[in-house]
Amino acid sequence: MRLDTPEGNLPPTRRAMAASLFFAGYASAAVSSCASPVTTPSDELIVEDVHINGAGGYSLPAYVARPAGRGRHPCVIVVNEIFGIHDYIKDVCRRFAREGYVAIAPDYFDRAGDPAPMTDFQQILAIVGTANHEQVMADTEGAIAWLKAQSFARNAIGITGFCWGGTVVWMAAARFPDIKAGVAWYGRVVRPAAGRWGADEDRPWPYDIGGTLQTPVLGLYAENDNGIPLESVEQMRASLQAADNPSNSQIIVYPGVQHGFHADYRESYNAEAAADGWARCLAWFRANGVG
Questions:
Q1: Is residue 225 annotated as a catalytic residue, yes or no?
Q2: Euclidean distance between CA atoms 268 and 186, whole angstroms
């Protein structure tokens, strides 16, 4: 079984150490000697916890960061990794807010619990497994509806996500016309092999919708990602080109880096690739009407 975990991309001699740090909870990983987590201040921002109308009418909590100034701002839905709405995801929201965006991170796992502080990997898997594809899509639709109802938000909505959230980006961009652009950071793009986590759910994967995708998505992937092999990324490229790529979607592969290269709390963090990916993300949104 392989999942979007930092130790999955480390040499075996370091894997056990990283696992012990990471699965002591997000906070332990963030302060470990191999990590330099970024902290974005919230001054001149409005940061709040809200509730949106999720799947089945569920009152789903979400973290919001937005500029404090008056006016209407473009929006970004930030989709978390398997570890939930922890400090890194909140910080990404504040980074977007400082760029002039209303950033919202729905807590997709709230119905089952909070995986961020957990130490038992199987407990984390159990929580993530409860968030099936249709529920996640409906929760995302709730975030869109919440944004469209706010006086400070423009109907210019993008979506970005990391690991587990990267897959959500591709699928949400294909489903919701209100989403103008997406940026997927190393999300799985093809159905997992039998026996692996997520393989048994009867659902489409990004590869399945690539040829009909109309919304432009930028995929940011890692050459040395042990969880998402390059062959699958090339399959996704082929899917996008099957219909002459009407969305103009693109995939960038960063050489020599590992899965999670943007996650500054992980040992796999790569500052150069992270900075380049962030710049590309902002430029992609601006070029596609979200900025």
A1: yes
A2: 13
